[in-house]
Design goal:
Elements: E1 4-7, E2 12-15, E3 25-28, E4 33-38, E5 45-47, E6 54-56, E7 71-76, E8 79-81, E9 94-99, E10 103-110, E11 113-120, E12 127-136, E13 142-155, H1 157-160, H2 164-170, E14 173-176, E15 179-182, E16 192-198, E17 204-208, H3 209-213, H4 223-227, E18 240-250, E19 255-266, E20 273-275, E21 278-279, H5 282-290, H6 294-312, E22 315-319, H7 322-342, E23 357-358, H8 359-369, H9 374-385, E24 397-398, H10 416-431, E25 440-441, E26 451-452, H11 453-466, E27 510-511, H12 512-531, H13 535-554, E28 565-566, E29 572-573, E30 583-584, H14 585-593, H15 598-613, E31 614-615, E32 618-619, E33 622-623, E34 649-650, H16 654-663, H17 667-677, H18 686-689, E35 697-700, E36 711-714, H19 719-731, E37 734-737, E38 740-743, E39 753-760, E40 763-770, E41 776-779, E42 782-784, E43 788-790, E44 796-802
Helix pairs in contact: 7-8, 7-19, 8-9, 8-10, 8-19, 9-10, 10-11, 10-12, 11-12, 12-13, 12-14, 14-15, 14-16, 16-17, 16-19, 17-19
This protein binds beta-D-glucopyranose.
The site of beta-D-glucopyranose has 9 residues, from helix 8.
């Protein structure tokens, strides 16, 4: 069953009822100011860092899940309603939510009044705009009372929900005409404030939440709204908010629009105040002036749409597969931007208060983003590398605001370093920009410790090569990609973090998955340095690759599939010898795509993966699921069977297998797996899947789970980047390379070909792939051997491949 539909021409997903199985959200903002916005207008805003600069409040574990956010009330006679259904919850005569790229539109109708609310964060601006258009479609003259409101968060979102003895005393606001300023803690060390404003004279306002709501009332029926008044309250401590009231007469057929602005301002220290205790509002005034009219809003919306059209125009495909095209052309790339921006910080499943930017996560996110805005990818690579330690190990996460490594989580995730090689090589293949390797990059952000980025990569490779266990395989440390395979943890204390505690440092537990990574990325590093003329170094890295490859082929092979690991007692994990967890997906994907054991091992491994792990939604992480907690395996065995790392379809690793199929030239296998969890392909099962049908989720409950097929943790997952790599570079086969663009598709029998446009190093490659008798590649009319389209002079290069 569906709850909406894709509007491909508008690049929108149109939700046709408010009661989606879960809040279906969208992201506003591109660089500094960000908002989450659900299909009922919930969500929150923050500036750069969802934990440290939270602008509006979000209540965790709230019921309904999604109440709060942007609070609009339209009072028409006795009826009080909200254009997006929440918070008023009054049934609407009609409702639509259109989530577009960087904007969301809510269309609600009640008693002949049509409301259209469009929310966006303009390009390069530090604010969210909310344009509310009201039209009286009835025969009667109306006098509407309209409220627009937000609740302020006291900046640090963790502190905001814990430190009440302080928080309930510090809230401060200023009121100036139709603008409410939130200035809590500005009197001391903060130099930022927020504001909420409307571009029309207000009939009244409230800034004290509890006055606005009244005793025992919630957001669905605030007392002020029920009485159609404002108390003009001035918050002093407690919970500051901004509620603006408009009185709007509307003749039959008349339409009026209002622009609400939620803004964030930073002032230089010396310009903080305009008078003692009074915030300097100059920057806010400038922002308000820039977005004061509906024409300015419309221009901002057009600019945003043009931006996305141009960005996505860099990679487009047209094939017989409408759903594949939809994913590639719009939604998968859009999600890649979101994961690039957010890493794993802020979604409806990631609280925005915990994980900031993940080392491995952000490195992988880059793989799906680098073609969009290479310059931002470049900056990110340097930020990530700057939390590495001199021995090549790295912090696992950092906070986006200060970019410092997160000491609470620390290091010891032994796959992390190699992902830096993966994303840097991808960046250089995309851009040809080898100068990034010379970029002075510190260790642990320490001034004076800078070395060229290349040295960071070298230490990454060296770290894995020199940290090996009894079988010659890489040591796993606290965990590898699978955060929940904690082979040195041995935890028995409730609540203890599986990732950060090590109650038994065996120094022995090994990962076959990291071996697969090393073979792939070690070879990529060797190619990179040989291009730099460092032939000897390339040779010695390849020698280490050979050793680790051999270890993976022997100790890592179980007969029918790759093993997963060796535990602290040197016993295999992911082997027929085990009673549960006999086969895992990760090494089947990564070892096969790395070419370990050639076709013979590859075909066996993928057949076993399908046989034991395959379900309707893809491949599960492992089989059989662990039914009991095992201290020598850690968190993986803590989840009930079928959930998360214990046997769900963990979507992130499925594209590795898709790519592995491509490495074996099995187009049917690749496509079949791709379509089992690509969101557009499972839209019809939305009532089972439950999360948004326009973006990937991290996990889909496996066959052993009570709620088989139910997805969780949508949006912020490495699935986005890897799925884009799998479909664009694997199935469609368009691969950036150092010396040109490779075109090496791996299509299913059902696809006869496709056309694609790919902007690569400033040239637009117009690619046609078709089936035919005379095989081969023709570039600008000339036959070219192999699959490499050499770098063209541009601006357009015509490529035809007959397969
Ligand atoms: C983490 C990833 C990890 C994955 C598998 C995600 O929650 O963000 O870093 O690879 O889980 O455990």
């Amino acid at each position: 069953m569906r709850y909406g539909y894709f509007d491909d021409a508008a690049r929108e997903y149109v939700i046709t009822r408010p009661d989606t199985p879960l809040p279906w959200i969208n992201y506003l903002g591109n660089e500094g100011f960000f908002s989450l916005i659900s299909n009922t207008c919930g969500g929150y805003a923050f500036y750069r860092d969802a934990k440290l600069r939270r602008i509006t409040r979000f209540r965790y574990n709230n019921v309904p899940h999604d109440e709060g956010g942007r609070l609009f009330y339209i009072c028409d006679g006795d009826a009080t309603w909200s254009p997006a259904f929440l918070p008023a919850k009054t049934p609407l005569d009609s409702y639509r939510c259109r989530h577009g790229l960087g904007y969301s539109v809510f269309e609600g109708e009640k008693q002949g009044v049509q409301a259209e609310l469009t929310c966006l964060v303009p390009m390069g601006a530090s604010c969210e705009l909310q344009k509310l258009t009201l039209r009286n479609g009835s025969q009667d003259a109306k006098r509407l009372t309209v409220y627009g409101a937000v609740e302020w968060c006291l900046w640090n979102a963790v502190d905001d929900s814990t430190n009440y003895q302080r928080n309930w005393n510090i809230g401060e606001v200023e009121i100036e005409g139709s603008t409410i300023y939130h200035k809590t803690e500005y009197r001391e060390r903060r130099n930022h404030y927020a504001f909420y404003s409307v571009n029309a004279p207000v009939a009244g306002f409230d800034t004290d939440r509890d006055t606005f709501l009244g005793r025992f009332r919630g957001w669905s029926e605030p007392q002020a709204v029920a009485q159609r008044i404002s108390y003009n309250s001035k918050a002093s401590g407690w919970a500051p908010m901004a509620a603006l009231r408009l009185e709007i007469p509307l003749a039959p057929g008349e339409e009026k629009s209002f622009l609400f602005r939620l803004g964030y301002v930073e002032n230089p220290e010396e310009e903080k105040f305009s008078a003692p205790g009074v915030i300097n509002k100059a920057r806010a005034h400038a922002l308000l002036a820039a977005y004061d009219t509906c024409a300015q809003f419309d221009a901002a919306l057009s600019e945003l749409k043009a931006y996305w059209a141009k960005l996505l125009g860099q990679f487009t495909v047209k094939s017989s597969e409408e759903k594949l095209d939809r994913m590639v052309n719009v939604w998968n790339q859009y999600q890649c931007m979101v994961t690039f921006n957010m890493s794993r910080s802020a979604s409806y499943y990631e609280s925005g208060t915990g994980r900031g930017m993940g080392f491995r996560d952000s490195c992988q996110d880059l793989l799906g983003f680098v073609h969009l805005i290479p310059q931002r990818a470049r900056e990110r690579i340097i930020d990530i590398a700057s939390i590495q330690f001199p021995d090549g190990s790295t912090y696992h996460q950092y906070q986006p605001l200060d970019k410092r490594g997160n000491a609470d989580v620390g290091s010891g995730f032994n796959d992390d370093p190699l992902w830096l090689v993966a994303c840097t090589c991808a960046y250089i293949r995309e851009t040809g920009d080898f100068t990034i390797l010379d970029e002075p990059t510190p260790f642990n952000n320490e001034k004076g410790s800078e070395v060229p980025l290349l040295e960071h990569l070298r230490r990454s490779v060296n770290y894995t090569a020199t940290h090996r266990g009894p079988h010659g395989l890489p040591l796993i440390g606290r965990a590898d990609w699978n955060d929940c395979l904690n082979l040195n943890c041995f935890s028995h204390t409730p609540g203890e973090s599986f990732q950060t505690c090590s109650n038994f440092e065996s120094g022995k537990a090994e990962s076959v998955f990291i071996a697969g990574m090393f073979v792939k990325y070690g070879k990529e590093y060797a190619e990179l340095v040989s291009r730099l003329g460092l032939g000897d170094e390339a040779k010695s890295v390849l020698a280490a690759v050979d050793e680790i490859e051999a270890a993976a082929r022997t100790a890592g092979w179980d007969g029918e599939w790759f093993r997963r690991a060796y535990d602290a007692f040197e016993r295999p994990v992911g082997s027929r010898q085990n009673d549960e967890g006999q086969i895992f997906i990760e090494p089947q994907g990564f070892c096969v795509l790395a070419g370990i054991g050639g076709r013979a091992y590859g075909q066996k491994a993928l057949a076993s993966a399908e046989k034991y792990l395959g379900n309707d939604f893809g491949l599960e992480v492992l089989h059989p699921c662990y039914t009991t907690y095992r201290d020598y395996l850690g968190e993986i065995s803590s989840y009930p069977p079928g959930y998360k790392e214990n046997g769900s379809v963990f979507c992130h690793n499925n594209p590795w297998v898709t790519l592995a199929y491509c490495a074996l030239d099995d187009g049917n296998g690749a496509f079949d797996l791709y379509t089992r969890n690509a969101p557009a392909y499972i839209e019809d099962r939305s009532e089972i899947h439950r999360t948004e049908p326009y973006c990937y989720s991290q996990t889909i409950a496996g066959r052993d789970a009570q709620n088989y097929g139910e997805a969780k943790n949508s949006w912020l997952t490495g699935t986005a980047a890897w799925s884009f790599v799998a479909v664009s570079q694997g199935i469609l086969g368009i691969r950036p390379d150092y010396d040109g663009l490779r075109v090496h598709p791996c299509l299913p029998d059902a696809m006869d070909g496709f056309t694609a446009c790919r902007t690569f190093r400033g040239v637009r490659y117009e690619i046609t792939v078709r089936r035919g008798e005379t095989k081969g590649l023709v570039v600008d009319g000339k036959a070219v051997p192999g699959d490499l389209v050499p770098l063209a002079a541009g601006p357009v290069c015509a490529v035809t491949l007959t397969i």
